[in-house]
């Protein structure tokens, strides 16, 4: 049985969307954006769907999020939920006065998921700073065709498959760990 939920960020985590066309051919276009899918994305989603429940949570506009997910979702993969900015919490940075959006896992809990069994994966540490024990930060993707982050992540995540409390495992230096252990 699949017990653990993976909450996946979208922009710079699973894909890169930009108004400025890159040298290589884009995978598709949504609105004004050229979209580059992170290498091995379909493999990653299909593999993970075998071991985990999956969900998408982005701080981008809700409609944009759904359009993108429609394009990248393998037919056999289902998401528990697909959330955009309306589910995030707006915060103001005291130093620069800029706004940013955070993902509060209490909202996931309210939907009935156990936080001991929830991992949130994001390229931006601030987005999940409130979810310290649940967060795995990965390198941002901005179109590098040789990126292999999703392969590394797929390999690392296997260890969480049957863990009762994912928060007990330190995830800060995950890429430096020996994957075979
Ligand atoms: Mg991101």
UniProtKB/TrEMBL annotation:
Coiled-coil portions: none
SMART domains (alphabetical): CPDc
Pfam families: NIF (PF03031)
PROSITE patterns: FCP1
InterPro entries for this protein: FCP1_dom (IPR004274), HAD-like_sf (IPR036412), HAD_sf (IPR023214), TIM50 (IPR050365)
Residue ranges of every copy of the FCP1 homology domain listed in the record: 1-160
PANTHER family xref list: DULLARD PROTEIN PHOSPHATASE
Protein name listed in UniProt: FCP1 homology domain-containing protein
Lineage, top ranks: Bacteria, Pseudomonadati, Bacteroidota, Sphingobacteriia, Sphingobacteriales
């Amino acid at each position: 049985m699949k017990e653990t939920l993976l909450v996946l960020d979208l922009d710079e985590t699973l894909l890169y969307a930009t108004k400025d066309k890159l040298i290589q051919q884009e995978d598709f276009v949504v609105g004004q954006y050229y979209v580059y899918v992170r290498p091995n994305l379909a493999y990653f989603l299909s593999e993970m769907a075998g071991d985990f429940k999956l969900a998408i949570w982005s701080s981008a506009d809700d409609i944009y999020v759904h359009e993108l997910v429609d394009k990248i979702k393998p037919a056999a993969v289902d998401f528990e939920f697909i959330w955009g900015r309306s589910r995030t919490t707006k915060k103001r940075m005291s130093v620069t006065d800029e706004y940013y959006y955070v993902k509060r896992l209490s909202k996931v809990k309210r939907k009935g998921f156990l936080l001991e069994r929830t991992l949130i994966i994001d390229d931006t540490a601030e987005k999940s700073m409130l979810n310290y024990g649940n967060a795995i930060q990965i390198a941002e993707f901005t179109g590098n065709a040789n990126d292999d982050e999703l392969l590394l992540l797929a390999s690392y995540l296997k260890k969480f498959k049957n863990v009762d409390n994912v928060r007990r495992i330190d995830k800060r230096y995950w890429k430096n760990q020996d994957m075979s252990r």
